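Incident log, structure service

09:12 report received: a user says their structure output differs between two submissions of the same chain.
09:20 pulled the input from the user's history:
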Amino acid sequence: MQWLTWAFLIAVTAETLTRLWLGSRQIAAVQAHRNEVPEPFRGQVALADQQKAADYTTARVRMGKYATVVEAFVKLGLTLGGGLAGVDSLWRQSGLGEPWRGALVVATLMLILQLVGLPFSLWRTFKIEARFGFNRVSPRLYALDFVKQMTLAVLLGGPLLLATLALMERSGARWWVWVWLIWLAWTLGLTWAAPKFIAPFFNKFSPLTDESLKKRVETLLERCGFAARGGVFVMDGSLRSAHGNAYFTGIGRNKRIVFFDTLLSRIEPDEIEAVLAHELGHFRLHHVRQRLVVSVAMTFLGLALLAWLAAQPAYYAALGVPVPSNAMALLLFILTVPVFTFFATPLLSWWSRRHEKQADDFAASHADAGKLAAALVKLFRDNASTLTPDHIHSAFFDSHPPALERIGRLYTLVPGSR
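09:34 re-ran on a clean worker, output below:
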C-alpha cells in the first residue's frame, strides 16, 4: 500500500493549502467591506459594529490558519513521523493485556491532541474573545470546564472504547457489526440524556419565568404540535460569553429548545416568538432525526471500512506503524479519514443551510418573518458576525445562509411583500 502513503501526503497537503486559501479569501472579503455597512442593514447596524465584525472575523480566521498548519504537522508527525508507533511502543513495555493497553494508547493520543489544541483554545478565549468584549470565562472556570470535559470523556467514552477494542480482539471478522450496534445504543442514549443529565454539569437551565412571554410561547408550542416535558429553557450563557444563541436538542421526552439568556435580553417578545418558531421548525421537519440517521449510516460504512483496513498489514506500514494492533488501526483511521473526507465539507454545509432555509419557511408560516429577520440582524450585530463573508468560504464552511441572503429571503416571506 505504498500508494496510500502518497495519497495521504497529497490529501494532507491539499486540505492544508485549501484551508489556508479559503482563510485568506475570507479575510480579504471582510476587510474589503470593513468601512461600509451593506445597504439592507443600514440604520440597523452601525459602522462601528461593521468594523468590529470585520476585525473579529479576521482575528479568528487568522488564528485558524496557524492552527491549520500545526494540525497538518501533528497529523504527519503522529503517522509517518512515528509518533503513534512511539506511544504504542512505550505502553507495550507496561506488560498490560488487551484491551487495557490499547485503551491507554488511545487515551494517551487523545490527550496529546487535546494538549496540542489547548494553546489555541486559550488564545481564542482569553485574547480574541476578551479583546472584542465577549469572554466572561475566568481562568478558574476554564480549568474547571476542562477537568469536567476530561472526566466525562473517561466516564462516557472509556467504556465504549474498551468494548470496541475487546470486540475487535475477540469477536471475529464481524466485530464491526457488534461495535456499530453498541455505538448506536450509546449514541441514542447520550442524545437522550445530554440535555437533562449532562449539559447541567456546565450550565444552569431554567424554565421561562416571564408570564406573558410564557403564555405566548405555550400558544406557539401548541400551534406547532411540540410536546416535550418543560419545552423551552433559558440557559445561563452569560456565565461564559456575551454571545447570544438558541438551539434545539434532544430526542424523546428530553427534547427541548434552549435560549441563551444573552439572547433574551436583547430581543423583543414577538422576535423571541419568531426565533422559537424557527427552532420548532427543526423539530417538526425532523432535521435532528435526519442527521442522526445519516450519522448512523455513515458510521456503519466507516466501521466496515475500518474492519477491512485493520486486516491489511500494509495499511499500518504505509502510515508509519510497524507493529499492527487494534488500537493502531483505530487511531490511524481517526487521524486519516477526516483528511480524505475534507472535500465533502461543502456538501454537508449545503445540507445544513437547506435545513436552515426550511426552518425559516416554517417560522414564516407560524410567526412573523419580519420579526425573525429583525432578531437575526440583532444577533449578527451583537455577535459580531460578518455580513460580508467570502462566497466560496461561506459555501464551504457555513452551516447557515449568509446574512444578506438570509435576511433578504425572509423579507420576501413577509405577507404583502411580493
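09:41 both user submissions now match this output. Likely a transient worker issue. Closing.
09:42 reviewer note: The chain is about 70% helix and 5% strand. The CA atoms of residues 286 and 355 lie 10 Å apart.
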